[in-house]
Every structure is written in structure tokens, then in C-alpha cells.
């Protein structure tokens, strides 16, 4: 048997992070169960943010929690620079000084974290996202790369700024060069990493595919409708029948296409309803939320839209079960979590016919052009009016998801960890 290895898990469990939050929960559960089954390895949650969610998850899965202190004070030069509103050359100089100070603080902070991890006898880290801590701390590590959309779809406002592009490139270039293993969600994701970062050191043997898994909390509890779960809130007129879309209000989520499709159906005499959940916090998401609701009002379908905001885990499963279908005309991939949740809960799926998503869905979803409201309207109208079409998609979804469950997910994660740990110096 291989020597016991202590694995540090660093993640960010913010419920408002949507699908990433659900992914992180699944990784915590799988890692805890794999470590227990291995009989010789130990997983420790490293809490860099002081999150209650992390503490709760550690207790729930029987994992140790390692609190890690952080440096949060802003240096004087940063506070001064933030108040300079004139003199471009002064601003540029202050930015350069602030960047240098920021680099020094990151280096110092990384050194402090590395010492804490070493004192806890952690030998390898697993990061559930492309966090800069991975290469800045300097310990052996595995990191997850969720997508490279900043390379593929930079025209969306959430990816359009030079600062956003530079930040992502800084992360991915360094991970390609330094991570012991890179984890992606699909073969398409692996192709993307190799295409854009092989020149930085990414190689096929270091990139591992770990498909997304439906979070297990979806199967807890027995409510079968949104009304039973308490999702109908005061002041909200919840529709009896509806299409469901759990997504934050980023432009790439393409809520507007759903509104346009609903308008097309209304002109055909078919009144469908949609229930949206997800955060609209922050300037960009709030602006897109206003655009979506403004368009709904302009096209006369505003009364057919129900927005619930952020909903708890307990409310999600009943919302899926009560829906006529999931409608997800997103532009982003390679794969997405809501379709997996829908398939697991017997909810038919309408998805974007785009690279990555196409491979994820196979024949288990009605694929539509996200740029064609007419095609989306056809799919919505068919499922709304024809129960046979719904049942057909539900059955395909169940067959599609049956091949990959928690045990397969845990096995693949274990393979990634084992093969990577075998390359650690003390084991080689």
C-alpha cells in the first residue's frame, strides 16, 4: 500500500457562485468518501476565507478543518492611489508602485500559507478552481480548469475587459507550467487547454477528465412541487406550469433569447411561463437583469416571468421536478451542471446546440441554436403542448445520466489523486 498522504482541499463555498458552488460541494463529498475508503489517505479542508459553509461541510463529511489566516489590510499607497482622480502620469506611477507592493504582499502571504500547510503535514493541494494560490504558494498541487471562455467568447461584457483577460491568462499560463495535474470537465475542455496552453507546459498526460456530477443534496427531502417546498414567496405569483432556468444574470446566460421565444409563442396563442432563479448582484448582472425584464415588458410577456432571486438548496429539487422543462440557451461550455441536475430529477432539457454542450447532451436534450429565438420557441411550444414529447426526453435523460453516478465520479477522482500522488518525491 502507498504511504499515507495528507491532501489539502482549498475551495470557495459561496452559495451565490451558482454552478461552481454545486461543483465544489460534489468534490468535497467525493474526496471525503474516497479518503475514507482508501484506508490510508487523509483529506483536510483548508479554510482561507473563514466561511461558515466550509465549517459546515467539514462537520457534515467528517473532515478536519485547517483555518488559514489572511492579510486583509490595504497598504497606504493603495488607499492614496484610489483617491487620485486627476493627473494621469501620477496615477500611472502610483499604479506601478501599488503593483510592486501587491506582488511583495502576495509573496509574503504565500509564504505564510505554505508554512501553515507544512505544519499540518499536508503534502499536496487540490484546488477546485484555477486559484492563483496554487502556483504562488509553491507546494505540489492539482487544480481544476472550468472553462477557457475568455479565449473563446471575449465579446461578452463579463469577459471583455483587458484586466479580466490578463487576470485569467496570468492564472492559466502559470497553472499550465506548474500544476502536477489539471482537471477538466470534458474531452472538449482538454482539447481547449492543449490548444491554448501546450506552449506553456500543459501536456496531455497531465490533463485529466472528471465530468460534472449532480449534487447529492438534490435527492434529499421528499417535496415534489415548488409549492410544497415553500418556494412561493409573499408578493410572488408562482405559475402552475413553467419552464425553469437557474442561472445568474450574466449576458452569456442568454435570458433574453427565452423572453423573445416566449413573445413568439404568445403571438401564436401559446402562453408559457418561465421561472428564473439566480443572483443579479453586481453592476453587470444587475444591468443584464434590467435588460431582461425591460425586454419582457416591451414584448408584453412580463407577467409570464417569475423571478425568485437566490433560492436555497432545499428548494432547487422541487423547482426542477415541478417544471415543464429546463431551458438553458447559454453560450458557455464546455459542459454545464443544470442539465445534469434536470436529468437526475426527471426534468426534460432544452440546451444550446454548441460545441461542448453538444457532446455533453448527446440525444438526451433538445438542442437549439442560442441565436435563434424561433428555434427556442419551437422547443418550448412542443414541450408545453405535447406530453409525449416531454416523456420521451425525460426517458432519454434518465438513460443518459445512469452511466455516471457518485461511485464512478469518486473512482475517477481517486484515479487522478492516486496517479498524481505517485509522482510526489517521497513516493517515487
Describe the overall structure.
The chain is built from 18 helices and 13 strands. It is of the alpha/beta class and 428 residues long. The strands form 2 sheets. It has a 7-stranded parallel sheet, sandwiched between helices. Strands 10-9-8-11-12-13 form a 6-stranded parallel sheet, with helices on both faces. It is globular, with a radius of gyration of 23 Å.
- The percentage of residues in β strands lies in 5-15%
**Tell me about the biggest sheet?**
7 strands, parallel
Give me the count of strands: 13
- Identify the strand order in the major beta sheet: 3-2-1-4-5-6-7
Looking at CATH, which topology of the largest domain would you report? Rossmann fold
The secondary-structure class comes to: alpha/beta
CATH C-level name of the largest domain: Alpha Beta
Keywords:
Rossmann fold, 2 domains, 18 helices, single chain, 13 strands, 428 residues, 6-stranded parallel sheet, alpha/beta
In short:
The protein has 428 residues and is an alpha/beta fold.
Amino acid at each position: 500500500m502507498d504511504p499515507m498522504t495528507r491532501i489539502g482541499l482549498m475551495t470557495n463555498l459561496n452559495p451565490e457562485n451558482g454552478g461552481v458552488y454545486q461543483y465544489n460541494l460534489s468534490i468535497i463529498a467525493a474526496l471525503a468518501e474516497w479518503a475514507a475508503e482508501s484506508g490510508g489517505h487523509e483529506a483536510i479542508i483548508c479554510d482561507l476565507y473563514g466561511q461558515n459553509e466550509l465549517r459546515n461541510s467539514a462537520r457534515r463529511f467528517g473532515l478536519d478543518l485547517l483555518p488559514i489566516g489572511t492579510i486583509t489590510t490595504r497598504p497606504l499607497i493603495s488607499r492614496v492611489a484610489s483617491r487620485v482622480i486627476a493627473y494621469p502620469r501620477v496615477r500611472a506611477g502610483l499604479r506601478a508602485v501599488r503593483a510592486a507592493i501587491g506582488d511583495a504582499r502576495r509573496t509574503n502571504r504565500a509564504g505564510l500559507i505554505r508554512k501553515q500547510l507544512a505544519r499540518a503535514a499536508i503534502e499536496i493541494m487540490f484546488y477546485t478552481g484555477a486559484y492563483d494560490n496554487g502556483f504562488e504558494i509553491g507546494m505540489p498541487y492539482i487544480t481544476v480548469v472550468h472553462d477557457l471562455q475568455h479565449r473563446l467568447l471575449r465579446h461578452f461584457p463579463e469577459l471583455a475587459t483587458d484586466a479580466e483577460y490578463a487576470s485569467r491568462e496570468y492564472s492559466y499560463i502559470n497553472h499550465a507550467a506548474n500544476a502536477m495535474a489539471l482537471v477538466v470537465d470534458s474531452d472538449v475542455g482538454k482539447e481547449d487547454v492543449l490548444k491554448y496552453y501546450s506552449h506553456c507546459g500543459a501536456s496531455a498526460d497531465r490533463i485529466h477528465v472528471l465530468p460534472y456530477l449532480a449534487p447529492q443534496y438534490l435527492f434529499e427531502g421528499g417535496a415534489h412541487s415548488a409549492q410544497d417546498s415553500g418556494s412561493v414567496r409573499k408578493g410572488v405569483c408562482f405559475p402552475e406550469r413553467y419552464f425553469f432556468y437557474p442561472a445568474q444574470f450574466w449576458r452569456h446566460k442568454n435570458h433574453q433569447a427565452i423572453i423573445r421565444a416566449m413573445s413568439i409563442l404568445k403571438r401564436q396563442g401559446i402562453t408559457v411561463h418561465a421561472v428564473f432563479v439566480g443572483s443579479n448582484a453586481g453592476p453587470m448582472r444587475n444591468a443584464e437583469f434590467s435588460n431582461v425584464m425591460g425586454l419582457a415588458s416591451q414584448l408584453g410577456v412580463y407577467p409570464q416571468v417569475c423571478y425568485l432571486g437566490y433560492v436555497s438548496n432545499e428548494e432547487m429539487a422541487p423547482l426542477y421536478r415541478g417544471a415543464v422543462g429546463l431551458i438553458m440557451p447559454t453560450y458557455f461550455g464546455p459542459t454545464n451542471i443544470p442539465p445534469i441536475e434536470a436529468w437526475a430529477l426527471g426534468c426534460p432539457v432544452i440546451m444550446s446546440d454548441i460545441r461542448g454542450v453538444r457532446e455533453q447532451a448527446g440525444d438526451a436534450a433538445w438542442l437549439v441554436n442560442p441565436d435563434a429565438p424561433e428555434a427556442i420557441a419551437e422547443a418550448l411550444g412542443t414541450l408545453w403542448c405535447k406530453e409525449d414529447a416531454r416523456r420521451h426526453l425525460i426517458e432519454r435523460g434518465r438513460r443518459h445520466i445512469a452511466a455516471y453516478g457518485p461511485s464512478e465520479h469518486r473512482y475517477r477522482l481517486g484515479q487522478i489523486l492516486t496517479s498524481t500522488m505517485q509522482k510526489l518525491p517521497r513516493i517515487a
